[in-house]
Amino acid sequence: MASTASTFDVSNAGLVIRPVQPTIGAEVEGIDLSKPLTDELRQAVRAALLKWKVLFFRDQSIDDAQQAAFAANFGPLYTHPTTRHDAANKEVHAIAAREDREYEKKLGYKLRPGEAYHTDTSWRLVPTWGAVLRDVNLPEVGGDTIWVDAHLAYETLSDELKGRLEGKHVTHNFVPALELSGHDYPIVAHRIVRTHRETGEKILWVNFSQQPQILGLELSESRELLEEVLRQYKRPDLQARFSWRPGTVAFWDNRATVHFAVRNYGDFPRELHRILIADEPLWTDL
Fold first, then answer.
1. What's this model's pTM, rounded to 2 decimal places?
2. Do residues 276 and 130 touch, judged by C-beta distance below 8 A?
3. Dihedrals φ, ψ of 61, to 5°?
4. What is the C-alpha to C-alpha distance for residues 242 and 24, in angstroms, rounded to an integer?
5. How far is CA 218 from CA 18, 112, 176, in A?
6. Which of 53, 153, 160, 186 has CA 20 to 30 A from 66's CA?
């Protein structure tokens, strides 16, 4: 279990980390994301990310190019095939509420309200490992994002459920969305219980926005087990619920978390800009 201290000091890099929950989420002070990172600072940020799984940087004034430069400290940037982006900044993806709602209407299947817990690009054979998100246009109230500690979600399962899920693979079906954008990619299946390559933690990893189905089981048993996973994700004690305000940047580890965007702001044109960080092929072996 992670420390529950209110702060701890990464003194060698001048960072102060303020946890928002005991095992997931921390606000980071002492860094200006508009400036290049020293190697020492880059290592300190990565170490904090591995510990807390999602980091929040407040009072930052950066543009798309500076956001991309920060993300590039941690790996090659990935251009998503279905999200809007400018030709000059193809790695910067607009996450716009209005476009998302219109897009989902065209998918051919409905997501159950409040249950689209997911991780980005899990439909790929080699998913992106990290993401950097910043606010562009926020509602005055609402629009929180929830991150789930996928390791704690696994650890707090019963031994019986752990045994039933171990070794099972679940589908990540992004084909309908890709086809709408003129792209072709097969349905991929990943292990439900995965081991994080850097921390060694076991994680519970299902994307409920992509029609999951557990392979090798009757549909009824697949649904039963997936409901148990979803029940874990919905537990408040496994979550960090974060409220955005202008000048906020979030950086999270896709391998250790799932997340959920709370849409409680009506028709407001909320928009965030996201950058995805590619992973090495070894991720497919996890």
1. 0.90
2. yes
3. -120, 90
4. 11
5. 45, 21, 24
6. 53
26-29 and 54-57 beta bridge pairing: parallel
User: If you compute the radius of gyration of the chain from its CA atoms, what whole number of angstroms results?
Assistant: 18
CA distance 156 to 132: 28
The Cα–Cα gap between 33 and 35 comes to 5
C-alpha distances in Å from residue 242, one per residue of 55, 63, 285? 10, 22, 32
Contact 127, 279 (CB under 8 A): yes
Q: What are the tokens at 186?
A: 């097969």
Q: What would the two tokens of residue 68 be?
A: 């991309």
What phi and psi values does residue 117 have, to the nearest 5 degrees? Answer: -70, 135
Tell me the CA end-to-end span of the chain in Å, nearest whole number. Answer: 22
φ, ψ for residue 236, nearest 5 deg: -60, -30
The per-residue pLDDT string of the chain (286 residues; one tens digit each, 9 = 90 and over) reads 333 334 444 555 789 999 999 999 999 999 999 999 999 999 999 999 999 999 999 999 999 999 999 999 999 998 876 666 665 677 888 888 766 666 666 666 677 788 999 999 998 888 999 999 999 999 999 999 999 999 999 999 999 999 999 999 999 987 777 777 777 788 999 999 999 999 999 999 999 998 999 999 999 999 999 999 999 999 999 999 999 999 999 999 999 999 999 999 999 999 999 999 998 654 333 3
* Token duo for residue 8: 């701890």
Alpha helix (H) ranges present in the chain? Answer: 39-52, 64-71, 97-105, 150-155, 159-165, 175-180, 219-233
Determine the Cα–Cα distance for residues 24 and 259; give it in Å rounded to an integer.
Answer: 12
| SS3 of residue 222 by DSSP | helix
